[in-house]
Design goal:
Elements (H helix, E strand, L loop, with lengths): L3 E10 L2 E11 L4 E5 L6 H8 L7 E9 L2 E2 L5 H10 L1 E4 L13 H13 L3 H14 L5 H4 L9 H13 L5 E5 L7 H18 L2 E5 L3 H7 L2 E6 L2 E7 H6 L4 H8 L2 H4 L33 H5 L5 E2 L5 E2 L9 H10 L1
Parallel strand pairs: 3-8, 3-9, 6-7, 7-8
Antiparallel strand pairs: 1-2, 1-4, 4-5, 9-10, 10-12, 11-12
Helix pairs in contact: 3-4, 3-6, 4-6
The structure holds adenosine-5'-triphosphate and magnesium ion.
Amino acid sequence: MAFVSIRDLKVAFDGVQVLHGIDLDIDRGEAVGLVGESGCGKSVTWLAALGLLPGKARVSGSVRVEGQELIGAPARMVERVRGARIAMIFQDPSSSLNPVQRVGRQIAESLALHRGLRGAAARAETVRLLDMVGIPSAATRVDLYPHEFSGGQCQRIMIAMALAGQPDLLIADEPTTALDATIQAQILDLLARLRAETGMAMVFISHDLGAVSAVCDRAAVMYAGRMVEAGGIERLFAAPRHPYTRGLFDAIPELDAGRGRLNPIQGVVPDPKKLPMGCAFFPRCTRASELCRIERPDLKPQPQGGHLACFRPLGEDTRTWARAEELA
Ligand SMILES: Nc1ncnc2c1ncn2[C@@H]1O[C@H](COP(=O)(O)OP(=O)(O)OP(=O)(O)O)[C@@H](O)[C@H]1O
Ligand SMILES: [Mg+2]
């Protein structure tokens, strides 16, 4: 049994569906990347799974943590799982660090809540955590306020806070987006090291495929509230099959440096209120056919491993398409 098992997770805001049925398993100890352009539903997937969306959100489907259902469960039970078993580093640092409270106190609160540590024991553990995430002179800086640390250090403090409950799974939502390249690389190293040391699983949410490949074993690509391709990181990198995945790779600056300029995907992610009838990627896809316009491909397991939702994948010849279109 997977540690976390998500099935047919759907989310709507004010009658507009933004998540259209996500299936995802996370095993103990593994690192899974969740990628896709802005607005594809990466954050909403995990905010919904952990009961963190505002009350107006309509959430359905199933999220089981070691068999225990979270969707529709009492808030107290969901809270216990969150923090103790699963911790989330939020995309927006200001939403997790309280600016008017000393960082040490914020971490100590989490230690008290999830591990029952108080007083000197909590203090010592707080310093140890800050030390572990690479805050210099942690023992003397533990009583400072968030604004007395740099952006990269605040990111590290958030990681320390998330680790305070010794989670089995860490959800890191764009943990490096706001940082410069050097600090970003340090945070990625830190996450990889912490995972090796603690054996925790990780979900790494990012639109940066380079960062995902550095820390993850496998990845899932999301587009317009659906998963369109998933699989082992090496296969995804070596031979992406969905034209959207391929487009994301072509837009990585590092890989493109030799060719001089970036190659972004034309067009924009569709408004969830006005999704195309067939494949949501159809209007931006250079390979699309008439079938793609009128019918939506389901996510299916692939003979070469992984999952794919595409009628005209890369690496297949046109005869295969013709057959698929006849069958459809
Ligand atoms: N609280 C909310 N109320 C209404 N709509 C929301 C809310 N939160 C998210 N959405 C919508 O849900 C969709 C998915 O948003 P989500 O935040 O999951 O995107 P994302 O993939 O995390 O993007 P980014 O890379 O920019 O963080 C978007 O269309 C967004 O506008
Ligand atoms: Mg997000």
